[in-house]
Amino acid sequence: MKHTESLQDFYKMSENKHLLSGENKIIRHFNIFPRWRCSAAKTYIRRDFYRIVLTKGSGILSFLNHKVRIDAPSIFIANKIIPYSWEPLSENQDGWVCLFSSEFLNTTNPEVYPVLNLETIPIYNLDNILQEEFSAFFEKIEEDFKSDYIYKYALLQNYLNLLLHRIQMLGDQVFSTSQMMDAAHRTVFRFLELLEQQFPVQSPEMPLDLKSPQDYARKLNMHVNHLNSSVKKVTGNTSSGLITERIVTEARSLLQNTDWNISEISDALGFEYPSYFTNFLKKHAGASPKELRLSYIL
């Protein structure tokens, strides 16, 4: 059974294939669309991307062992760690969906966005005035997303920052999930939070501190076998597999978005020799660093 849905998985679904434009990259990803353009029902699973949802219509949002019935227009943010599902209760399932990856947000100061805290599910009920305000903002973002403006992705990053700050201004209607987690979920939460804290890599002179499950277990003050079994139980993946996936994602991002040479990227990601980095990407990304960088240019 698959425990985590990636962006690739999301767009492979037949009802979602039309939502991915040719120019929109999976790395540093952003997308926005009306809810009617995708399936309203959402399977209970963890996603490896963020989702901001403006709902118009009734449904039940389930996460961990909690269920929240939503009847009024609302906005909520689903993060990368907590599994969740949406069960529609009304025929009308209008609203908006905004998807984005951690790399797209591109902030060196995540503390300014408590609504993205991996321990919370922010849910806010909206009155008619707020519903109209957020709907108009989503419409404007979609309009510019579809434009030919050469710097539109920089503009979209600014829009996303504004959207997150505007949501935070709504107040403290946030569900803390820390008391809802069992021991395995708490272990995995701490591991994934620590994993995310390693990125983005800021400089070749500041390489990754933690590279292996043993490193993470030591930092978390637990036996590596306990870490591995908890990660396997909750995510269906291995801890080394999740570390590898995150390093591959960061390698792709650095190759695409920096002018660092291959040796510098290799050093930044903690490889002893560039040849080790090359073999690593060939195995896990299907191409060498040079080939990947060229594919982003073409």
From TrEMBL:
Pfam families on file: HTH_18
Keywords: DNA-binding, Transcription, Transcription regulation
SUPFAM superfamilies: Homeodomain-like
Stored SMART domains: HTH_ARAC
PROSITE patterns in the cross-refs: HTH_ARAC_FAMILY_2
InterPro entries, per the entry: Homeodomain-like_sf, HTH_AraC
GO MF annotation terms: DNA-binding transcription factor activity; sequence-specific DNA binding
Domain HTH araC/xylS-type: start-end pairs: 189-295
PANTHER family: ARAC-FAMILY TRANSCRIPTIONAL REGULATOR, TRANSCRIPTIONAL REGULATORY PROTEIN
Protein's name in the database: Transcriptional regulator, AraC family
UniProt organism field: Dysgonomonas macrotermitis
Organism phylogeny: Bacteria, Pseudomonadati, Bacteroidota, Bacteroidia, Bacteroidales
